[in-house]
UniProtKB/TrEMBL annotation:
Thiolesterase that catalyzes the hydrolysis of S-D-lactoyl-glutathione to form glutathione and D-lactic acid. This is Hydroxyacylglutathione hydrolase. Binds 2 Zn(2+) ions per subunit. It comes from Devosia ginsengisoli. Zn(2+) 2 binds at residues 60-61, 133, 171.
């Protein structure tokens, strides 16, 4: 049993993903940002779309659902908490549920904040984590709908996953995230190393994902809201980490 992940660009700065279960031949798109990009990736691989796994309701993650479902008859799985915002869902899931793609099982985690019902998909056996806009390389998504406490709890739960987990996020924001992170945590050696790596990757035209969760735990300020270094930066020594998380998020919003 194995899972092949195909990564491709979509829209202006989205990442598109196809995941292919080799045992069964089933193929899922993780989110549906753009019909043409997904169709081209399928043709390139010689795969047929059987499933679509949706993380949240924003248009740049769901726009292609109607066309893809009409063309391929794909099963569409999405967040129970956003069922009223996403058309054409066939199966609803939330944290604690699991979804099968042939012989591959994805565990579902709640990751509220960017949107209230945002979910992520984790292939535990293959060590693949699809986080969309809940967790980026060196960042997290804007807190459009949620509040700091639940959003911090959600990313902290993802932080508990193994260090060798490969993370596939929704957008290519790593360079701007690195610039902000260095502005608030300039002495972090792991962050300095990752920022240099990002610069080299982009100079050679390569994507900055997937990234190792363990490396992001050491470098991403949003995963380190309980680190006294960041609390001190914001003058919040002894504060609840959720308060520090909120300060980091506000800082990035205004950066």
């Amino acid at each position: 049993m194995s899972l092949i992940v195909d990564v491709f660009p979509a829209r202006s700065d989205n990442f598109g993903y196809l995941v292919h279960d080799t045992a069964s031949g089933r193929t899922a798109a993780i989110d549906a940002p753009e019909t043409a990009a997904i169709r081209n990736a399928l043709v390139h691989r010689g795969w047929t779309l059987t499933d679509i796994f949706i993380t949240h309701h924003h248009i740049d993650h769901v726009e292609a659902i109607p066309e893809l479902k009409a063309e391929f008859g794909a099963r569409v799985v999405g967040p129970r908490g956003e069922a009223d915002k996403i058309a054409d869902l066939d199966e609803l899931v939330s944290g604690g549920d699991s979804v099968s793609l042939g012989e591959t099982t994805f565990e579902v985690y709640d990751a509220p904040g960017h949107t209230l019902g945002h979910i992520v998909f984790h292939d535990k056996a293959g060590k693949h984590l699809f986080t969309a806009d809940a967790l980026f390389s060196l960042g997290v998504g804007r807190m459009f709908e949620g509040t700091p406490g639940p959003m911090w709890a959600g990313v902290k739960a993802l932080r508990e996953l193994p260090d060798d987990t490969l993370v596939y996020c929704g957008h290519e924001y790593t360079a701007s995230n690195a610039k902000f992170a260095l502005s608030i945590d300039p002495d972090n050696a792991a962050l300095q190393k990752r920022a240099a790596e990002v610069k080299d990757l982009q100079a050679s035209g390569r994507a900055t994902i997937p990234f190792l969760l363990g490396e992001d735990k050491a470098a991403n300020p949003f995963l380190r809201a309980d680190d006294p270094v960041l609390a001190r930066h914001y003058g919040l020594e002894g504060a609840d980490p959720a308060e520090v998380f909120a300060a980091i998020r506000k800082g990035k919003d205004n950066f």
